[in-house]
Amino acid sequence: MTWSGQQDRALHEIAAWRRAPGRKQIFRLFGFAGTGKTTLARAAAAEVRGTVLFAAFTGKAALVLRSKGCEGASTIHSLIYRAFEIEERDASGNVVGVKIRYCLDPFSAVAAAALVIVDECSMVNEKLARDLLSFGTPILVLGDPAQLPPVRGEGVFTAEQPDVMLTEIHRQAADNPIIHLSTKVREGGRLARGDYGDSRVIDIGRFTPEVEAGSDQILVGLNRTRRTLNARARRRLGRDPNYPEAGDRLVCLKNNKDKGLLNGGLWDIAEVEGFDEDGVDLRIASCDVEGQRADVYVRREFFEGCEETIPPAERRGTDEFTYGYALTVHKAQGSQWDDVLLIDESSAFRENRARHLYTGLTRAAERVTVVLS
């Protein structure tokens, strides 16, 4: 492959880092969408003697990595943690249930790897980063500074300046409608209505039920829009309007390392195990990590859209989830879907307007429909 001057310099910088005696553990390769970060990471991996592991924060991002030739890409969580079961017993000592918990796996493949490459690194929080770095393995992290700044507690790898910053868009990538649209937004332009290959930009007046139901994931800017579209999605599916049901899609709102819960992770309800006056016990299955399950207790207010009314003391010891048919762009950071429906509410974010819209656009891997609201 023929590299641009900027890409060639990046590969030389990565190689020099790997050879350097007493090298630092982390190398930061940042770049805008379409600059070839993943392609360069694959090329750098091919020069490594030993095992190279590819990882991302979410299962969706790991799937995208695999589709780009990063063989075996997985979530960071599945790479470094292992599950174990804890029996629950009643007062007589009888087993009444089994809870699933997670701990750091000392025998993780990371321990023997020559290099770990982490994509969408802005989503990695301090605890996850610390556990990943504890193996001592060199880490090459990939990030995009044009995206929204990470939410509080995350962005450990993006807190420092990049070792290499890629700014030149690949000629091939420039022909991709999603790259074209996101680059235009990043450079301060406005999106014009029309068709862009399989993608399109439409007015709110063309936002029909067929458009609403036709994507893999709906992304919005505002929580009130998210709640409205989640309610409509559940109504289309014939769900009980008052209670979550088996099969409902949820998004995690708070980390819980013992249960393997990560803020922003998507889950499906496998079983509703019981209700009480305050909340619901659920067994859930991860949409991001194959085979991962968890038992959670969620206050009912999260499903009623009034979670802000819960006193802080009463939130302790509970898990936080809400419906995930529609997500905010903030919550979707680190994930990708083939076909995204993006309700453009970026004007609500003022100085971060362009970054909000850019982040939403780049959550789409193949097609995006932007609704100008």
UniProtKB/TrEMBL annotation:
<protein>
    <submittedName>
        <fullName>Putative deoxyribonuclease</fullName>
    </submittedName>
</protein>
<dbReference type="GO" id="GO:0009338">
    <property type="term" value="C:exodeoxyribonuclease V complex"/>
</dbReference>
<feature type="domain" description="UvrD-like helicase C-terminal">
    <location>
        <begin position="323"/>
        <end position="371"/>
    </location>
</feature>
<dbReference type="Pfam" id="PF13604">
    <property type="entry name" value="AAA_30"/>
</dbReference>
<dbReference type="GO" id="GO:0017116">
    <property type="term" value="F:single-stranded DNA helicase activity"/>
</dbReference>
<keyword id="KW-0067">ATP-binding</keyword>
<dbReference type="InterPro" id="IPR027785">
    <property type="entry name" value="UvrD-like_helicase_C"/>
</dbReference>
<dbReference type="InterPro" id="IPR027417">
    <property type="entry name" value="P-loop_NTPase"/>
</dbReference>
<dbReference type="Pfam" id="PF13538">
    <property type="entry name" value="UvrD_C_2"/>
</dbReference>
<keyword id="KW-0547">Nucleotide-binding</keyword>
<dbReference type="GO" id="GO:0006310">
    <property type="term" value="P:DNA recombination"/>
</dbReference>
<dbReference type="GO" id="GO:0005524">
    <property type="term" value="F:ATP binding"/>
</dbReference>
<dbReference type="InterPro" id="IPR050534">
    <property type="entry name" value="Coronavir_polyprotein_1ab"/>
</dbReference>
